[in-house]
């Protein structure tokens, strides 16, 4: 996500939390609590003691680790409890033990890789729970002879890009723009980035996986079966088990690529260009991806306008890009001076918002430093937004101010893959996907500010309803949004799940529920937007 720090205040990672830890209040609870911790060493590899990986609220580093990989500070305001423990797994058996013992002693398990869940479901719950933190399981094993790699769940997108670049300057992988995303969760919801039109989603290039099921078994593609392998690619893995690692197929990229950013304000014809972009961007050759990103700006007093950025990535050199743009989108007026040529791995820095010339070593920074209060929502568009609709969008942006919108074109490879190929169903027929995000600072207040900004995000979402997909109004699971429907922390009502399930997974929801019934019939793996087992008839 490329966000200007001049627009949104930066706040410290450390904040004062008004939530309390869940500690046993009677003897029965205390027995369960103690039994859980005594269970863990018995179920894990003794050569790598799990006791060294367990943090409780009594540990001095507990609060630091809890917050370190919790990237949306808003979620703490609504949290009623902290976890009874954090298991910072250092060996696959630690994750297996967490499943077996949490299940045996009736603790809910939340799985966290990078901590980028927009609603914080990977590290909050309203019932006694344990966080299984996968961050230390971050190995990346690349085999250039087969152009494949095994990537553990705790590795970040930045680490993956860096390790590929160590081996080759003509290989890459299609996944997120943000470089601190945990691979485990990012891939499980689909995983997309600026290679989406050329190579599809991350999951479209996954060829195997290791999954821990509700019985603590480690399964691969063959042993889990094709139905489960289908479900974990785009269906949100934490409904089905715990991803240990993904096996991916690397993709080919040229030695040099070209990136650009062209900005136009409303006074410079941005509305006409945005209208034209909708018609052009989804139909461009696969090698070219152009994101449209409008943001409100204030030139002083009441002199507000909207500046629209056209951010492009081309798998080729500048001369070829200019020839293509002169034919397909001459209205943008792209010039040679707008273009920057660089290696593919350097282009990942460009998209992440690092300054030109930054060392690729920044890709190894695994934790997002600047935390924010935020609320995000998503939409899919199957028809061009009329100019009147764009003007509505501009007006709401100027009214709200602290908000950003990203419009990402589809077409290309996404048109070619069936919506039944994986659990990810948003394929052909979509022109673009949109992220709406609003952010605010700690200085603006706590609960009251949160309520106000969340309501503003809903105002924008409602304003765009006439133009977005409908029946259902589709949403992207990696842009988690509890507004579209949810369950309680410890319950998964099927009728409630159908509401958000249809929006996230369209017609694939029922098949996902059927798979859930087979691999996790007692619904051990659950959260507020998980997939329930399909009821038996």
Report what the structure shows.
With 537 residues, the protein is α+β, with helices and mostly antiparallel strands. The protein folds into 3 domains: 32-133, Uridine Diphospho-n-acetylenolpyruvylglucosamine Reductase, domain 2, CATH 3.30.43.10; 140-252, Uridine Diphospho-n-acetylenolpyruvylglucosamine Reductase, domain 3, CATH 3.30.465; 257-342 and 372-467, Vanillyl-alcohol Oxidase, Chain A, domain 3, CATH 3.40.462.20. It contains 17 helices and 20 strands. It has helices spanning 27-42, 62-68, 74-78, 92-104, 157-167, 183-188, 196-199, 221-224, 226-232, 270-280, 318-328, 344-352, 387-400, 413-416, 447-463, 494-505, 509-519; strands spanning 20-21, 54-55, 81-82, 85-88, 108-112, 129-133, 140-143, 148-152, 171-172, 206-212, 218-219, 242-249, 251-252, 257-265, 288-298, 304-314, 339-342, 373-381, 403-409, 432-440. A hairpin with a 5-residue loop joins strand 10 and strand 11 (218-219). Helix 1 packs antiparallel against helix 4 (92-104) and helix 13 packs antiparallel against helix 15 (447-463). It is found in: Secreted, Cell wall. Belongs to the oxygen-dependent FAD-linked oxidoreductase family.
């Amino acid at each position: 996500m490329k966000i200007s720090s001049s627009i949104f205040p930066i706040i410290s990672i450390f904040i004062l939390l008004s939530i309390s830890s869940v500690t046993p209040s009677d003897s029965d609870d205390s027995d369960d609590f103690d039994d859980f911790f005594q269970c863990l060493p018995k179920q894990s590899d003794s050569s790598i003691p799990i006791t060294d990986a367990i943090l409780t609220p009594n540990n001095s580093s507990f609060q630091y680790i809890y917050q370190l990989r919790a990237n949306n500070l808003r979620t703490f305001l609504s949290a009623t409890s902290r976890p009874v423990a954090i298991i910072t797994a250092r060996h696959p058996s630690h994750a297996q033990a967490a499943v077996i013992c949490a299940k045996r002693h009736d603790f809910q398990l939340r799985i966290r890789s990078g901590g980028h869940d927009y609603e914080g479901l990977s590290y909050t719950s309203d019932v006694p729970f344990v966080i299984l933190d996968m961050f230390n399981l971050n190995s990346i094993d690349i085999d250039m002879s087969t152009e494949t790699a095994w990537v553990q769940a705790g590795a970040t997108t930045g680490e993956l890009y860096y390790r590929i670049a160590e081996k080759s300057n003509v290989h890459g992988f299609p996944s997120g723009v943000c470089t601190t995303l945990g691979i485990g969760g990012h891939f499980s919801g689909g995983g997309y980035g600026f290679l989406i039109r050329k190579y599809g989603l991350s999951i479209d290039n996954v060829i195997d996986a290791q999954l821990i099921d509700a019985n603590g078994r480690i399964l691969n593609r063959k042993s889990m079966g094709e139905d489960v392998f289908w479900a974990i690619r785009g269906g949100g893995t934490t409904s089905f088990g715990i991803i240990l690692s993904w096996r991916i197929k690397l993709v080919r990229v040229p030695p040099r690529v070209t990136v650009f950013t062209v900005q136009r304000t409303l006074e410079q014809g941005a509305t006409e260009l945005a209208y034209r972009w909708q018609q052009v961007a989804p139909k461009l050759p696969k090698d070219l991806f152009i994101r449209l990103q409008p943001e409100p700006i204030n030139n002083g007093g009441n002199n507000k306008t909207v500046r629209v950025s056209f951010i492009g990535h081309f798998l080729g050199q500048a001369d070829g890009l200019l020839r293509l743009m002169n034919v397909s989108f001459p209205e943008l007026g792209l010039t040679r001076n707008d273009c920057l040529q660089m290696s593919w791995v350097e282009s990942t820095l460009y998209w992440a918002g690092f300054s030109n010339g930054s060392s690729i070593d920044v890709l190894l920074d695994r934790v997002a430093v600047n935390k924010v209060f935020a609320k995000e929502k998503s939409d899919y568009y199957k028809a061009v937004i009329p100019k009147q609709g764009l003007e509505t969008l501009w007006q709401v942006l100027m009214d709200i101010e602290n908000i950003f919108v990203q419009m990402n074109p589809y077409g290309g490879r996404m048109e070619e893959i069936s919506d039944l190929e994986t659990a990810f169903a948003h394929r052909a027929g979509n022109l673009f996907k949109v992220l709406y995000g609003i952010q605010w600072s700690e200085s603006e207040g706590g609960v009251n500010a949160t309520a106000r900004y969340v309501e503003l995000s809903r105002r924008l979402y409602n304003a765009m309803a006439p133009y977005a997909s409908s029946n259902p109004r589709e949403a992207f699971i990696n842009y988690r949004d509890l507004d579209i429907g949810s369950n309680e922390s410890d319950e998964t009502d099927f009728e409630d799940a159908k509401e958000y399930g249809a929006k996230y997974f369209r017609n694939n929801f029922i098949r996902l529920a059927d798979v859930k019934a087979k691999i996790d019939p007692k619904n051990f793996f659950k959260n507020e937007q998980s997939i329930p087992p399909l009821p038996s008839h």
